[in-house]
Design goal:
CATH class of the largest domain: Alpha Beta
Mean pLDDT: 83
Number of helices: 9
CATH architecture of the largest domain: 2-Layer Sandwich
Largest sheet: 4 strands, mixed
Helix content: 40-55%
Strand order of the largest sheet: 1-2-4-3
Order of helices and strands: HEHHEEEHHHHHH
Distance between the termini: 71 Å
Low-confidence stretches: 239-248
Length: about 250
Amino acid sequence: MMPDPGKKPQATPKPAHYANGMLALWQIRLEGDWSRHETYRILNVFQRLSEQSGGKSILEIFNGQSTTLHRSGRPGRVGRTRGQEIFLDEDWTDWTFAHELGHRWNNAWDRQPEKRLQRMVGAGRNEWLRKVTRRLIISTEKALNRLGITARLDWRALWYHPGEAPPPCGVDRNFNASEDLAESFAAMILQEDAQKRARRAVERMGEDGKRWDWPSQFQNYPATPRGQSVALLLKNLPAAKENLRQTN
């Protein structure tokens, strides 16, 4: 039978081993059982990351280091990163993975990305004083709880200061330099998700959140001052690291 000239040919699905082969090439190791769908989700995040870095290889982005992914064995949608290892909960999302990959990137370069980002956007002002005060508040909360008094002393004045450039998805009491870097990294990869999260943060914060409403001012996250800073780090990190070494 002759093919119908008016019908577009169907794309041939890539075989299951294609994603595993690409990840192995980049020294990405998957420990445990991962479905074909999950493996392709992981591959997609890495491919988007390479695009945002100007086509750099994944190994180059992670300072020539391997990365190992594990199942945490826990229910939930979050993850944890220790050194070169990422642990994902059973219902992990693409955002979860991209966020943890941001921590992995930070670790690969001895946490220089978060320090550099702080300087570039003027974040973390008076952080030493805020940290001391936050520790005091946490100790006070624990003491009150031991007395049977449920209290949460959540002073926004003590939250991590994100600087003048809007953070990707707002801030809360747990926000810090490391989380700032990881959220910004994820927002560069999953730009549509970042816009949705930012709008939800603005609604949640009310008047306080309006200054972080970057979707109403910019076409996408890479166009924001913070996004541009992360893009520069992704493309030029070895040079940025050397500059930091000279100024420290």
